[in-house]
Amino acid sequence: MAKGLTAGELRVEDQEVLVQKLKEAKEELFNLRFQSATGQLESHGRLRAVRREIARIYTVMRERELGIVTVEKESSDG
Predict the structure, then answer these.
(1) Distance CA 27, CA 64 (A)
(2) How far is CA 16 from CA 10, 61, 74, 76, in A?
(3) What mean pLDDT value characterizes the chain?
């Protein structure tokens, strides 16, 4: 999963892409928590970063659900 996803980058993605990124982030969080429990975690800051990425994805999805922000596709007008 790409590191450092911003809300702006997420807002231009399709719903299917958001769902996929959410799934990947949750899998990564599970693996990091497992490593932490077994004492093998090297980067504790990554736990926080992944939790924030998950929160950003949920926020963008909720904004769309409420109609606050619509999908902003880049136009290919020239």
Answers:
(1) 24
(2) 11, 11, 17, 22
(3) 87
* 48-62 pLDDT, tens digit each: 999 999 999 999 999
Where is 22: in which H helix or E strand? Answer: helix 15-37
Q: Residue type for 3, please? A: K
pLDDT range class, residue 36, cuts 50, 70, 90: very high
CA–CA gap between residue 76 and residue 59 (Å, rounded): 27
Residue type, 59: T
Residue that the structure tokens 């702006």 belong to: 8
Judge whether 38 and 13 are in contact, CB under 8 Å: no
Structure tokens at 42: 């090297």
**Predicted TM-score of the model (pTM):** 0.81
